[in-house]
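Chapter summary example: a protein plus zinc ion.
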Amino acid sequence: MSRTRTPVVTGWFGGEGDDFRLLGTRCSACAAVFFPREDVLCRDPACPGGELTEVPLSRRGRVWSYSDSRYRPPPPYVSDPELVWSPYALAAVELEAEGIVVLGQTVPGVTVADLAVGMEMEVVPGVLNEDTETVWTTWHWRPTGVTA
Ligand SMILES: [Zn+2]
């Protein structure tokens, strides 16, 4: 039986392989870009307010900060309490063109020991969790040059 691949959040990312992108929105009045996407009102209080349209974000950015998660987060984080917790690394990656920082888990196997501020990262499709019917998809940050 094949399981369905379902985004863990609808509308925040899309595309496959090299076309995979995070999806933000841009204000037509002040050109600010938002991620997570803002679809109602521009968040800049000084902006008269423009139309918010979806924009794919840059695929690459640079590590602004990073940390690791050494404990099991409480629900709604999904994890099997029967399994040993394995820490994962979190990277805050600055997208220069958009002027924003986007947080995300790194690809499996990349730990804080592999990260440094300023390192170039690229966004890739990832899996947050799997059950018998569904593969819940998300985005991961991967150091550029790492292909595994
Ligand atoms: Zn605006």
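Key point: The pocket of zinc ion is lined by residues 27, 29-30, 32, 42, 44, 47, 50 (CB under 6 Å).
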